[in-house]
Design brief:
The protein has a domain of 128 residues: Rossmann fold (3-Layer(aba) Sandwich). With 195 residues, it is an alpha/beta fold. Strand 8 and strand 9 form a beta hairpin. The protein contains six helices and twelve strands. The two termini are 14 Å apart. The protein has a five-stranded parallel beta sheet, with helices on both faces.
């Protein structure tokens, strides 16, 4: 990635073939399998390398032993609760009411105008996040800029078959000549330990 110090990477890492570097990395797996942990690990590694990072991750909100909602913290910035069982919505995604204004207040500035050599991290491109037309537009603009991007997505059937995974892959395929890597959360964890 641009701006990263020269450091040996495993042969099965970012390089696809000599001279080709992945500029779009999708961390894909089923819900609850470690996408956010992997995204946070990527942020940590890039920051250790001195690479500018912007974007956001998500956090589970737990009440007792049950998941009650989600918060969105910007990398090095503010945090907001954007989905909760006690929020009315609309929209409602499953048992969660989603506060799109709270999500947009944190996520949109975190995605806007990446600096030179900056890697943008989006955790995640999911059904709740895609309910925001402004978020969908911000992701499309980021893809048009060509900045390096790391994003997490679900890979399950049912409602997501034509949801976040399909939407993002369709956008990426339109940009011919842009190498895309797709790793599971386990692969990110394994590769980060090799660094």
């Amino acid at each position: 990635m641009p701006g990263a110090p020269r450091r040996s990477r495993p042969s099965n890492g970012w390089q696809l073939s000599p001279g080709t570097v992945i500029t779009r990395l999708l961390i894909e797996t089923r819900p609850g399998a470690g996408k956010t942990t992997a995204a946070r690990r990527v942020v940590s590694i890039l920051q250790e390398w001195g690479v500018p990072v912007q974007g956001f991750t998500t956090e589970e909100i737990r009440e007792g032993d049950r998941r009650a909602g989600f918060a969105v913290p910007a990398v090095g910035g503010p945090r907001a609760v954007f989905a909760h069982v006690n929020l009315a919505g609309p929209p409602r995604i499953g048992r969660y009411g989603v506060d799109l204004k709270a999500f947009e207040r944190v996520a949109l500035p975190a995605l806007g105008d990446p600096q030179a050599d900056c890697v943008v991290v989006i955790d995640e491109v999911g059904k709740m996040e895609l309910a925001s037309a402004a978020f969908r537009g911000a992701v499309q603009r980021l893809l048009d800029t060509g900045c390096p991007l790391v994003a997490t997505v679900h890979t399950v059937g049912g409602p997501f078959r034509r949801g976040s995974w399909h939407w993002l892959r369709k956008l990426l395929r339109r940009r011919r000549g842009v190498p895309i890597g797709a790793w599971s959360a386990r692969q990110v964890s394994t590769r980060s330990q090799e660094q």
